[in-house]
Amino acid sequence: MISIIIPAQNESAYLNRTIQNIYDTCDSEPQVIVVDNGGNGEIDTRAVIIKPGENVGERKAMNMAVESATRDYILRIDAHCDFTPKGWDVMMAEVTGRKDITVAVLGAKTPVWEHVSNKKKEQWLAQSKKPEDWQAWQVEKGHWYGLCRMIVSEDEQGHKGLECKWQKANRDHANYKTLEPNMGLTGCGFMIQRDFYWEIGGADESLPAMGAIGEEFAIKAYAAGGRVQTRTDVMIYHIWGTGGYDTSGVKVAQQKLWLKYQDVYPSLVEKFPTFEGLKLIRTDQPGKNIRTVTATRTDVQDTKDAEGKLIRRKIETFRYVWLESEHLDEKGLTQEQIEAKYAPMGVKVDEEILYANNKGELIPQLAAAV
């Protein structure tokens, strides 16, 4: 029923523990797919292991994994996680419709090693064991993150980007429904049907290799008429202290997402009137000032009857975001030259269908149906 994909790099201390926990807590027989970007040691042979031969980053790794997936549901997680309760896989899948992204609540754990006495540590090391082999983990109290807002951030140069932030450490979660509408996600612990994953284009490899995965999938789901929701009775705990990743591409990814989907964002905000902090904020994320050109194309397709009378018009809008940082050999091109070259390569961002009434007037699809 479920393919669990894990892009992993330098996770030898945690990866097999995560895989074992998956098998211990799933009610279905999961398909675990690991994209081994290096430094993961010997990986549990129950997993499907993809070895690109180099660190291909998160986006390409996700697409490679989903291409190998054979199940209807995809769950993307990190390589250092615990799951609860038993049967969480069925609980997530049963509420994930064709155009849904379902997110688990995220918590935090730390190794008990960090909390035990020096004497206990000495005893453990005396047995020729390493700290990362300590299999007990402690839940960090107060870390219950379920709701996530998507904001528009702006750097010092005035460049805007879409950024997901936790609404708060949701200490009032006892009052939540089992399924809560959500605005965004942070990139881990989300489930999506495999067909919808590809319908929205998968992970966009034209964006930087790492960063803003949650922003990307949330805004693309809403742009395609889907939604994001949180299953509040499923927890995925992240193990703290595992290190980070190269964040240099995060800002660029967020800016490209804003340029592509800024027309979608206002309608998304309207869906979450009670969410706080949706106003423009300043961000301290690092990143260079980048030259950006947005190439837009509009395609019109008319349908006529046997007499040549117009009965239907479909208007599709396509957009390509050109960044100088990705096209260094084209620095000298003018905006008009860039638009002419890249507008044909645009990604579809909007569609409108109009029908002609008896007077020959074109009106929206919904109004025509009424």
Describe the structure.
The protein contains 10 helices and 17 strands. With 370 residues, the protein is of the alpha/beta class. The protein has 2 domains: 2-282, Alpha-Beta Complex (Spore Coat Polysaccharide Biosynthesis Protein SpsA, Chain A), CATH 3.90.550; 292-369, no CATH class. A hairpin with a 5-residue loop joins β16 (347-356) and β17 (362-364). α6 (213-223) runs parallel beside α7 (250-261). The longest helix is centred in the first third of the chain and has 12 residues, at 57-68. The protein is globular. The two termini are 40 Å apart. The relative contact order is 0.13. Mean pLDDT is 84; it is low at 366-370.
Number of strands: 17
Determine the strand fraction and express it as a percent band: 25-35%
Oligomer: single chain
Q: Give Rg in angstroms.
A: 23 Å
CATH class of the largest domain: Alpha Beta
Separation, N- and C-terminal Cα atoms = 40 Å
How many helices?
Answer: 10
Level-2 CATH architecture of the largest domain: Alpha-Beta Complex
Which whole number gives the mean pLDDT? 84
The dominant shape is: globular
